[in-house]
Design brief:
Elements lengths: L4 E5 L6 H4 L9 E4 L10 E5 L4 E3 L7 H15 L12 E6 L23 E6 L1 E6 L4 E6 L5 H12 L9 E3 L4 E2 L3 H16 L5 E14 L1 H11 L4 E6 L5 E6 L2 E6 L2 E4 L2 E6 L4 H12 L2 H19 L8 E10 L3 E11 L6 H8 L7 E2 L1 H11 L10 E6 L4 E4 L4 E5 L2 E10 L5 H20 L2
Antiparallel strand pairs: 1-8, 2-3, 2-12, 3-7, 4-6, 5-6, 5-20, 7-8, 9-11, 10-11, 11-19, 11-23, 12-13, 13-22, 14-15, 14-21, 15-18, 16-18, 17-18, 20-21, 22-23
Helix pairs in contact: 5-10
Length: 444
């Protein structure tokens, strides 16, 4: 098997330094571990100039589109890249609404953002920063012309031109729902739970504002205010941009090992150290939040079992506290091994969208979401991911994620509703989760 060509570049703990040099290129994409402020992520990846771009065609099924993705990766050819996480392959997003191409779901919500269900590029190179070894490496697939590799090396090694990107809201964020709308939706969900239709439903509301300027300036401000280990920025073909500050991994495949890390359970950060500690302890020992988390762990164990070796599914971590600038979260981990004859795209098809942002049972929860959320989720609760020619995958759940499209920027917040949920507490939680993001943009 041929090996990728690699070129060492000066290490940078901040990937925006390098991304500045390519961010206006076609298909520019950044997978950002939130360093140096966030300590959980290990790698940053960035690339641009995809060889081709893939989006689903009208009426194309999810399985047919994933088959095209598989063919695109195969066309690039296998390559070795040592322990680096990417050797050339796919980078992009699946929107939450891509699920309609995988499952039979009602279609009643308004698609006012009109975001394609997926936009994925095939990339023959990436710049990878490893924060454990403190190295930055340009990785070029063997199929990439050596002259193009040298052009990229020189471009990335050159100081970036100073660019004065600015971003301003033209009006404040407004929610699509009133508090009364929210109350009625939660009461409807509780009625479904009492009737035995479901155990948990993730319900969300959207906030929107008009803006002017460069979404990249907004992303830079957001990552300073709220660094997270599964963040990302993707420039789309029509000039739109995805700005994601996600704390949640969806699926990872490394050497055939599978991992997912669902988040369920949230508390705000305290105003002082003592209040913060009390809120963290309250979350850690909350029967409601632990039960909510456990429901999703069980759902994900079932999802992974579709593509993983029987008997390999494990739960190595349960109810672990993770803290971020705006919230504390309760996080678990489910691991497994891919079954013979299955690959990362099979795993993605069998698990999408993530159970932590749908509910349980998944399909019934999604039907209820379709009934009660009057607009499509678009990128929210979808996934940003990369998949390389060796079958290595990493992906996020696109929460704490914004979409800058035309002259409007959209942001969503929500939470899991269970039998003992209080609508006012859930309403406040949906705001708490995105408050730092909205306040940061208001201040620009």
């Amino acid at each position: 098997m041929p090996s990728c060509r690699t070129h060492a570049l000066p290490y940078s703990a901040d990937p925006t330094v390098y991304f500045e040099r390519i961010r206006q290129a076609p298909g520019a994409v950044l997978f950002d571990s939130g360093q140096p402020a966030s300590q959980r992520g290990r790698y940053d990846l960035l690339s641009a100039w995809p060889l081709t771009r893939l989006s689903p065609t009208p009426g194309e099924t999810g399985s047919d589109f994933l088959r095209r993705l598989r063919q695109a990766v195969a066309s690039l050819g296998h390559a070795k890249a040592g322990e680096l996480p990417f050797a050339g392959g796919l980078m992009g997003y699946l929107s939450y609404d891509f699920a309609r191409r995988l499952e039979r779901l009602p279609d009643t919500t308004l698609d006012d953002l009109e975001l394609p269900d997926a936009q994925i590029g095939l990339y023959a190179w990436a710049l990878i920063s490893d924060h454990q070894s403190r190295t930055t490496t340009l990785v070029c697939h063997p199929s990439l012309d050596s002259a193009e590799g040298e052009r990229l090396r020189q471009l990335l090694a050159s100081p970036s031109e100073v660019q004065t990107a600015e971003f301003h809201l033209k009006a404040d964020f407004t929610p699509d729902l009133t508090s009364e709308d929210y109350r009625q939706a939660i009461e409807r969900i509780l009625a479904y739970i009492q009737a035995g239709d479901c155990y948990q439903v993730n319900f969300a509301q959207r906030f929107q504002a008009s803006f002017q300027g460069d979404p990249w300036a907004a992303y830079r401000a957001l990552r300073r205010a709220c660094p997270t280990p599964f963040a990302g920025y993707q420039s789309l073909a029509d000039g739109s941009a995805i700005l994601s500050l996600s704390p949640e991994r969806f699926l990872r495949v490394a050497h055939g090992r599978v991992e997912t890390r669902p988040i369920k359970g949230t508390r705000p950060r305290g105003r002082n150290a003592e209040e913060d500690r009390l809120l963290a302890d309250e979350l850690r020992h909350s029967p409601k939040d632990r039960a909510e988390n456990l429901m999703i762990v069980d759902l994900l164990r079932n999802d992974l079992s579709r593509s993983c070796r029987p008997g390999s599914v494990r739960v190595p971590e349960l109810f672990v506290l993770e803290s971020y600038p705006n919230v504390h979260h309760l996080v678990s981990c489910v691991s497994a091994e891919l079954a013979p004859g299955k690959d990362a795209l099979d795993l993605l098809a069998g698990s999408f969208p993530g159970g932590s942002i749908t509910g349980a049972p998944k399909i019934r929860a999604m039907q209820i979401i379709e009934e009660l959320e009057d607009r499509r989720r678009s990128i929210y609760c979808g996934s940003l991911f990369y998949l390389d020619v060796r079958g290595e995958l990493d992906s996020s759940i696109a929460i704490r994620t914004l979409l800058a499209r035309k002259d409007r920027i959209s942001c969503w917040g929500g939470g899991g509703i269970v039998a003992d949920s209080d609508w006012q507490a859930e309403y406040q939680e949906s705001i708490t989760k995105v408050r730092t993001l909205l306040e940061t943009l208001r201040a620009l």
